[in-house]
Predict the structure.
Amino acid sequence: MKTYTPRVLAVFVLLIVATVLAGLAIRAWAPAFDLQAIQAVAAHRTAGLTRLTSVLTALGSLVILSPLAAIAAALLWRWDRHRDALVLVTVVVGSALLATLTKVIVARPRPPVEHLTEVSSHSFPSEHAVQGAAICLAMALLLGRTRPAVVRRILVGIAIVVALVVAGSRVYLGVHYPTDVAAGLIVGWVWSWLLVGQAQMDERRVMKSTGSG
């Protein structure tokens, strides 16, 4: 993990910088379609869909994701996959920090429509989208790593669908612009994919080196 940690920090910093620059650009640009889209969604809300969305949006909250990730990490540790367990923990902590730090710097105001859920922070990027995308994908990739290819595809597919549902719910509830959730999904998926991929590359390199020795 000695060489892995500096690379993780480098990826984290680069993602923060890229996301902040994108957020500041979007805030300055203030694309018309962003407001038009969320106003159109708000105009077609229904009581039933609101109740459903209010439940589904929790899938991007750390209140739900943290226990799930803890169970997944415990399983990985029990299976003697200690490195994978630590990678998952890093993805969870990093995704929360990425969203929080970027929100503070960009400071984009929330959309001017009725909010159907309580929010207290800024709008860009969607924290739920970042966390849902990153953590669900990491769990799918790590838990499915030793499974048949079809199982891995199913797990990754479920992870992507969950993240998209969470992202859509944030727009429906009026607390995020479409660009907020789009950025959140991209950041979350990139963070997770790079960390898991780099860890697996390092492990293959070590195994190859040990085998050749």
Summary: The radius of gyration is 18 Å. The mean pLDDT is 92.
